[in-house]
Write a structure and sequence with these properties.
The protein has 92 residues and is of the alpha+beta class. The protein is 33% helix and 17% strand. The protein has a single domain (2-87), classed as Winged helix-like DNA-binding domain superfamily/Winged helix DNA-binding domain (Arc Repressor Mutant, subunit A, Orthogonal Bundle). The protein has helices spanning 13-22, 36-47, 53-60, and strands at residues 2-4, 10-12, 65-70, 80-83. Strands 1-2 form a two-stranded antiparallel ribbon.
């Protein structure tokens, strides 16, 4: 079983599902900062089916670092922006 990722590469389906089930973006396919919506769309591409929004957010949000910023210039309510936790920039 193989799955095609958003970046156009092919990976073994077992690798995809296992890695993406436990980590938000182990292959760093999303540019930072990103929204939960963008992350969910990536996971849906990897897994090959739609994911439930609220469950996905509850599972992934604790593993991400918020930037304190939101999207602008988009329709609807601004979305919170996130980074991978190990790329958070510290000030001070």
């Amino acid at each position: 079983m193989y799955c095609q990722l958003a970046a156009g590469g092919w990976y073994s389906g077992g690798y995809c599902c296992n890695q993406y089930a436990v980590a938000p973006d182990p292959d760093r396919l999303l540019a930072e900062p990103f929204t939960i919506f963008e992350l969910r769309k990536l996971h849906e591409a990897v897994e090959g089916h739609a994911l439930q929004r609220d469950t996905f957010r509850r599972r992934m949000e604790p593993q991400l670092a918020g930037t304190g910023q939101t999207t602008s210039g988009t329709r609807g309510r601004p979305a919170e922006l996130f980074r991978h936790p190990d790329t958070v920039r510290r000030h001070g």
